[in-house]
Amino acid sequence: xxxxxxxxxxxxxxxxxxxxxxxxxxxxxxxxxxxxxxxxxxxxxxxxxxxxxxxxxxxxxxxxxxxxxxxxxxxxxxxxxxxxxxxxxxxxxxxxxxxxxxxxxxxxxxxxxxxxxxxxxxxxxxxxxxxxxxxxxxxxxxxxxxxxxxxxxxxxxxxxxxxxxxxxxxxxxxxxxxxxxxxxxxxxxxxxxxxxxxxxxxxxxxxxxxxxxxxxxxxxxxxxxxxxxxxxxxxxxxxxxxxxxxxxxxxxxxxxxxxxxxxxxxxxxxxxxxxxxxxxxxxxxxxxxxxxxxxxxxxxxxxxxxxxxxxxxxxxxxxxxxxxxxxxxxxxxxxxxxxxxxxxxxxxxxxxxxxxxxxxxxxxxxxxxxxxxxxxxxxxxxxxxxxxxxxxxxxxxxxxxxxxxxxxxxxxxxxxxxxxxxxxxxxxxxxxxxxxxxxxxxxxxxxxxxxxxxxx
Length: 456
Hints:
- It is a single chain.
- The protein is an all-alpha fold.
- The protein is 83% helix and 0% strand.
- The protein has helices spanning 2-8, 13-45, 49-85, 89-116, 118-123, 129-142, 149-160, 166-188, 198-222, 231-235, 239-273, 275-291, 293-311, 315-348, 355-388, 392-417, 422-430, 432-446.
- Helix 3 runs parallel beside helix 12.
- The longest helix has 37 residues, at 49-85.
């Protein structure tokens, strides 16, 4: 513990200046998104267990798409940060072009499936006819936001990794707040609008995403930021760079696909326990995202700052920075762990749900608080440290091992063999974080994750 404290409380003003300039805006963005998401969750929750379960399962499909797009842009972010560290602006735009192409094709596939087969998709997760009908009515509208996402996520990621953090933050905050306001107006029929219920929540999301993307991209081109490329700059790409991008990003994409399919399978297992179980898990996930906001900022700062040092060939400094980030994560997670366990009843007070769903959520929040220290360490280590060095194959190995060889058998055993309540199944699933922590820490101290991708 003394070593960790000394690592964190060091006199390195340059490190902390950069850290706070990246981590705090990202954390604020995540915090606002999580708070508004919680408000949205509460508003939908006023419609009952079936409604919150339906939106939760629909958002699971959205979550799969978002994670795949995040994986593609995370692969790109490794190049953005390292090319920015080596001041190679030309290749930053070419990586943006590759990122736009891959994310748009992926989003289009998800859009077509959701538009034509919305209820079929929801039925994968739930057998409740009411949940399937409500979820389908939400998904068939919200899927129009899918074709907007590639542009906002690509330009936003490129901007953050090239020093323009404030713009994507501002655009995202405007979109999030607009989403909350429109949810209130359209779900409950305020200001003269008809009461739309769940379809109103979906329409609010589409409008907010469109506004966010418009603000972000138009500002980039008006102010001529370095990410404001022409079609030729984006898509005239050397074959060698395409191969390098695919070699690195394919591992990141495979890793996140393996993870998100596993998490989606967990949700399908929870849904078989009952509609109340889905409602409880959806609420817990919303609250959990609120706990993670600071650590998303830490992970983003870590990816950028450590990646910059690797791109500048300062490998010892990269390792030192990574160690410092993980130490900050550990100390802060201790505090949030205590707060989560102590005040979890307050998080559940606004929800108008059944007593069974409320008690399950209350018990699971205790488990979330206990495992939080390992959970956030693993997240920052994987997203911030290992990805900054392009160590994608090890990240893939981690998720195949922990999600599928440990977590999935545990989930199936708990739900269908031992027939445990939701809390018991959830506890068995998150036990994988113990193994993941051991593997992440061993990999970190080995320094094998440090790979210079742009100077070879």
